[in-house]
Amino acid sequence: MRKGSTAELSSNFARTSYQDLKFKAGIQRDAKGEPMASLEMVTILNLASVDAPDGMNITLRGLPPVGIAMRQQVKLLEGRWFDTGKREVVVGKSIAKRFPDARLGGKLKFARGEWQVVGVMDGGRSAVNSEIFADLNQASSDYNRSEVLSSCLIRATDEVAVQALVNDLNADIKLNVDAQTELAYYAAQTVSAAPIQFLGLFVSVIMAVGSCFAAMNTMYAAVARRAKEIGTLRVLGFARSSILTSFFIESMLLSLLGGALGCLLVLPLNNIETGIGNFVTFSEIAFSFQITPAIMAIGMGFALVLGALGGLFPARSAARKEILTALREV
Amino acid sequence: MSEVVIQTKDLTRVYKRDQFEVTALKDASIEIRKGEFVALMGPSGSGKSTLLYLIAAMERPTSGTIDVLGQDLRALSDKQVAQWRNIHVGFVFQSFNLIPVLTAIENVELPLLLTNLNAKERREHATTALSLVGLGDRLTHLPKQLSGGQEQRVAIARALVTDPDLILADEPTGNLDSQSAQDVLTMLRTLNQEHGKTVVMVTHDPHAASFASKARYLEKGALLPEGHVPQDWFVRPA
User: For A232, which of B82, B85, B97 is closest by C-beta distance?
Assistant: First the structure.
């Protein structure tokens, strides 16, 4: 990107810089000997979705065929890739699913005309699923940005060359670019997910505290209701520690049951896709809920911890009851 | 003369509630010998139940000494007391105190969970105890499916399943009709006379006390000398 830019959308990358850049040492070449450097234009367009009839911002990426070749994780699900020089687009699968106009064969109106949807692509677990791809030259010409584009994606010859190439590009004053690895770039972009992560954690903590008190309340009620049983067991010879252990285990088992129930209830959310606005790119980022066995195990573990915390004090109060006091409670 | 199994000397129990002190039992000295069936009698608040709870080590005395089956109960820790009670004492409550979600046999098996018996042995012992109280055909009944008299018999089976030396009963007929009460008292007398168990029973019912070999009276927290009856005992409504 151009120096000083934090996202492709706000970056003005000159075509002349690209001409200088693509012949730098350390850039991988394809079978034809062409450098693997993809000059790209990124902008946003507004599409009406099922959830937002008034439209949502979607990332449009204009790129040359080499840009597609460089994105090996991107596979065509349906249709074909766009032809160069035509108003044709290939949409990410999340877009195709959520925006009626963006289905295969549909037509999108933006820039200077109508664009035919000729393909649907699957970007694995990348942001490509929320993007629309079009031919770089056609898109940049429609937006009157033939000379000022957004970014350039390049591939280094090998892992060792990456840092050297980054340093070389950043040091080149004439280029005036901010080179960084794709990994670093996307790590910076996903900061927009931080508030969601925080919100998720915040809600979890609030719910956890609530659940803890609920578990405590349930167990205190159980202890109060079964005071006579506690007294009887003590008279029969059960020690305080047995009473404490039994109530503690009961609390843990109840929490485990609650955890299992919670896991079952969230299972229908597995793979559900939705989207949020990204405040860095001002466009939509689609994401899906993944309920994996590991997440369920963490949930169950969390439930156990809450059960243990919520059950400890009631169990202790049960164990501390004097026999006669317990027997006299109704 | 048979050995003394319960011996108390100047046994006193004072309860403290807020800033008030209530003396429930004062300087009670009693000796109960092996194989005796003793009824502790007296009006409400006389201290008879307190004495029974002290013998069962359900409470600690404020002062005085108490030796049961040769053991100074004051010297035992909480855990040791629980273990001691499990081995040596069978307790019968007025209100049966069965665990409502457990069947008759499971209730009777409860004290055996603290022993080294395996599941099969526990079941056999519990079945024998229930058969002994005439409930061999009610093993899998829940307490709510039994009559009051049957519930108390399950409670007696639970009290004797560990083959304790001492059976302590706190108003065991208080919640029963006269026929069931008769059955329960006969059962306690059989345990005493035929199985040699020492029985201490708290009651304020003279008819129940007539099943015992000896009655001791308490009044206002004091244990009256043997053979003494409270002056106004017979004019009180039963």
Answer: B97
**Mind listing the pLDDT tens digit for each residue in A70-115?**
998 899 999 999 999 999 999 998 888 888 888 899 998 888 889 9
CA distance B218 to chain A (A): 20
Contacts of residue A233 in chain B, CB cutoff 8 Å? 110
Q: State the pLDDT confidence band at B232, using cuts at 50, 70 and 90.
A: low
Q: Residues 6 or more apart from B3 whose CB is under 8 A from it?
A: B33, B34
- Other Cβ atoms closer than 10 A to A159: 7
Instruction: Name the residue with tokens 């902008």.
Output: A43
| Cβ–Cβ below 8 Å for B79 and A240 | yes
Q: Looking at the predicted structure, is the pLDDT value of residue B110 above 60?
A: yes
Range of the domain at B175: 4-97+164-226
| B104 within some domain | no
Q: CA dihedral defined by A18, A20, A24, A30, rounded to 10 degrees?
A: 50
- Residues B64, B35: contact at Cβ < 8 Å? no
Beta-bridge partner residues of B63: B12
> Least CB-CB distance to A237: which of B93, B97, B111?
B111
| Domain CATH code at residue B182 | 3.40.50.300
Chain A neighbors of B158, CB-CB under 8 A: 236
A323–B79 CB contact, under 8 Å: no
Nearest residue in chain B measured CA to CA from A241: B79
Running DSSP on this structure, what letter comes out for residue A2?
A: B
Q: Which chain A residues touch B83 with a CB distance below 8 Å?
A: 237, 239
Look at A238 and B82 and tell me if their CB atoms are within 8 Å. yes
pLDDT, residue B237, reads 46
B10-32 pLDDT tens trace:
999 999 888 889 999 999 999 99
N-terminal to C-terminal alpha carbon distance within chain B? 35
Cβ-Cβ contacts under 8 Å for B42 (sequence gap 6 or more): B48, B204, B217, B218, B219, B230
pLDDT at A46: 84
Residue A263 has pLDDT above 60, yes or no: yes
Q: What's the token pair of residue B47? A: 């201290």
ipTM: 0.89
Smallest Cα distance from A94 to chain B, Å? 54
pLDDT of residue B157: 95
For the cut 60, the answer to whether the pLDDT of residue A69 exceeds it is: yes
| Domains held by chain B: number | 1
